[in-house]
């Protein structure tokens, strides 16, 4: 470590340039990770934050909840299963309405029972008290919808009683509404819903065995059924993977060239008795020190950039996500230095001292 720090201080200009490259690459990876998380939340936060463990659909739905159709009466069968803590019916209806200025607003209606565990708490306004009350995601305010507004959906008029947070589905704000809004239709014996959300300590296979004829999905599996969700996430994750590979390649080239330039120094150190392991550890310490400092600077720069992004841009930074990305960048940086370590191990002291750099 002593040799590594001495080298970093002595050739600070050279290492500052390398550090600048690492900061830029790390920042880019953090920003794309933030965009991926933001798009995920914008597309699916209503399902991600659903207070349930599994979502039950019909066999032919293939994770697409909006395409599933199940008889609502089967909710009683689900509730009677031992160790099922709670269960609620859920239907999703994409709709559009207009705000007070007659501007069109797209909204996803999540229909469930009154008093259902699925209805989120209001962060502004009140909860659902009357039949026509809804709790709407607060991002609808960006479209000009205010607390107390009455929104028309065909012949149906709904009153915005409260705003919730983190309730988005298919890039639109979610409005929670009770099935009582639909009057006699909700009381029909053959009423159909899209599926059931269930909270239980049972495993997925146990729930499946007790609900024969249905498909049981975890919330993560159900996300794949949201239109364009998998495609968006796959594209951004692929960009992150390529950036990590590029970062490893760039760092490998930088450290390899620097190792070649220092063959004479390494040769002299070996002639003086320095072990190959000591020199490899010194090089590894250099890479780790530069990478950790630059990743920290990149994280701070990304946080600063996030403060100045437009409000409408889906960008979310979470400590866990940043830590995971930082660990991957560090691993790729260390992997990129393996070529240089191999070069150090091959240095012949006599050849290097005689000026036989290759």
TrEMBL record:
InterPro entries, per the entry: ABC-4/HrtB_transporter (IPR051125), ABC3_permease_C (IPR003838)
Keywords from the UniProt entry: Cell membrane, Membrane, Transmembrane, Transmembrane helix, Transport
Membrane topology of the entry: Multi-pass membrane protein
Transmembrane segments: 15-36, 236-257, 278-305, 325-345
Primary location class: membrane
PANTHER family on file: ABC TRANSPORTER, MEMBRANE PROTEIN, HEMIN TRANSPORT SYSTEM PERMEASE PROTEIN HRTB-RELATED
Family statement: Belongs to the ABC-4 integral membrane protein family. HrtB subfamily.
Subunit details: The complex is composed of two ATP-binding proteins (HrtA), two transmembrane proteins (HrtB) and a solute-binding protein.
Summary of the function given for this chain in its UniProt record: Part of the ABC transporter complex hrt involved in hemin import. Responsible for the translocation of the substrate across the membrane.
Protein's name according to its UniProt entry: Putative hemin transport system permease protein HrtB
């Amino acid at each position: 470590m002593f040799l590594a720090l001495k080298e970093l201080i002595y050739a600070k200009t050279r290492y500052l340039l390398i550090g600048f490259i690492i900061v830029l690459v790390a920042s880019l990876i953090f920003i794309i990770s933030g965009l991926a998380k933001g798009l995920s939340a914008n597309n699916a936060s209503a399902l991600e934050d659903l207070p349930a463990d599994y979502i039950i659909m019909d066999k032919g739905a293939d994770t697409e909840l909006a395409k599933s159709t199940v008889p609502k009466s089967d909710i009683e069968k689900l509730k009677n299963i031992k160790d099922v803590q709670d269960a609620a019916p859920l239907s999703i209806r994409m709709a559009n309405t207009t705000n007070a200025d007659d501007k069109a607003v797209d909204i996803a209606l999540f229909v469930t029972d009154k008093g259902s565990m699925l209805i989120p708490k209001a962060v502004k306004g009140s909860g659902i008290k009357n039949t026509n009350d809804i709790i709407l995601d607060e991002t609808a305010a960006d479209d000009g919808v205010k607390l107390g507004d009455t929104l028309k959906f065909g012949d149906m008029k709904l009153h915005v009683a409260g705003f919730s947070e983190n309730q988005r589905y298919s890039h639109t704000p979610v409005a929670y509404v009770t099935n009582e809004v639909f009057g006699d239709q909700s009381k029909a014996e053959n009423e159909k819903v899209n599926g059931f959300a269930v909270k239980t300590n049972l495993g997925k296979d146990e729930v499946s065995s007790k609900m024969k004829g249905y498909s049981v999905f975890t919330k993560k599996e159900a996300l794949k059924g949201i239109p364009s969700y998998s495609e968006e996430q796959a594209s951004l994750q692929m960009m992150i993977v390529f950036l990590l590979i590029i970062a490893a390649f760039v760092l490998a080239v930088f450290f390899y060239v620097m190792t070649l330039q220092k063959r004479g120094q390494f040769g002299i150190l070996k002639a003086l008795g320095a072990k190959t392991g000591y020199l490899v550890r010194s090089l590894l310490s250099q890479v780790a020190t530069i990478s950790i400092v630059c990743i920290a600077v990149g994280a701070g720069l990304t946080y600063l950039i996030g403060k100045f992004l437009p409000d409408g841009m889906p960008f979310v930074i979470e400590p866990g996500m940043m830590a995971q990305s930082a660990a991957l960048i560090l691993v790729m940086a260390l992997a990129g230095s393996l070529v240089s370590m191999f070069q150090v191990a091959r240095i012949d002291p006599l050849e290097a001292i005689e000026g036989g750099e290759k």
